[in-house]
Amino acid sequence: MVASAPLQLATMMTLPLNELLPLLLLGACTGFLAGLLGVGGGMIMVPFVTILLEQHAFPAGQIIKVAIATSLTTIVFTAISSVRAHHRRGGVRWEIAAVLAPGILVGSFAGAQFVGALPAALIATIFGTFLVWAATRMLRHRAPASPELARSLPGKSGMFGAGSLIGAISAVLGAGGAFLMVPFLTNRGLRPQQAVGTSAACGFPIALAGTIGYMVAGRGIELPAGTIGFVYLPALFAIAATSVLTAPLGARLAHALPTDKLKKVFACSLYLMSAYMLWKAWSLSTIAH
Fold first, then answer.
1. What is the DSSP string of 218-254?
2. 229 confidence band (pLDDT: 50, 70, 90)
């Protein structure tokens, strides 16, 4: 799935400069914030990619699906470097990631088919509601469960079910799953560093299976050139190119900047994005009727 540099460059160059620059800037911002605050890029990318794609010749009912699919696919690129960094620090519990992976693959692929079959207004409603939940959760900081209160990890069938659910929700939201995976693992006794590293390892199968799922779900739908299924390649490579560069910078600055205060500001911005997505849902529903 990782394209060569010449292919990435050729794909990005199919966009006019006034359309390419906002995507490059979006990638830089999402990568930086992901490194700085540990938040998933999907929360930021999907609303802004939706806005940017409205300037293209995409059918109104397909724009949000393309935005979610493209956002999820960028994680295929960013997850690789993230996992390598966590692995070097011994932060990945590979035995746990391996047990979760089968359910993740099934759930993420199925989630993409679910989105492909839903009306756009309902998808926008789900996404906007999720942003409200994510912002509220960010403002209400909760400490992870203490080792004495932590529950043990479930058996293989329970891990398959957990992986399937996390994979499906992540694919629906165009996210890497950390917002669900990290609390799941910390509440079962993993140290926060291990939970984050293991979650990063699980982000790759989520993104890979979801990408394939969105390519399959979008077959036969007439979309502008440069799309494979619901994945829009010019936006994908433009966002991935800059997010990979700025994520390490954000991670380094995380130790120097007041991230708790920044998270509050970011949470407030999520409320604004949720308002836009819910307004988008209302506007799409009125068009449908």
1. TTT----TTEETTEEHHHHHHHHHHHHHHHHHHHHHT
2. very high
Coil, helix or strand for 3?
Answer: coil
Give me the residue label for tokens 């620059």.
21
Domain ranges of the chain: 5-288
- Scored b (16 or more CB within 10 A) or e, 21-35 reads ebbbebbbbbbbbbb
Query: Does the pTM exceed 0.90?
Result: no
How many CA within 13 A on the CB side of residue 7? 7
Q: Please, what's the b/e burial string for 94-133 (b: 16 or more CB within 10 A of its CB; e: otherwise)?
A: eebbebbbbbbbbbbbbbbebbbebebbebbbbbbebbbe
The answer on pLDDT for 2 being more than 50 is no
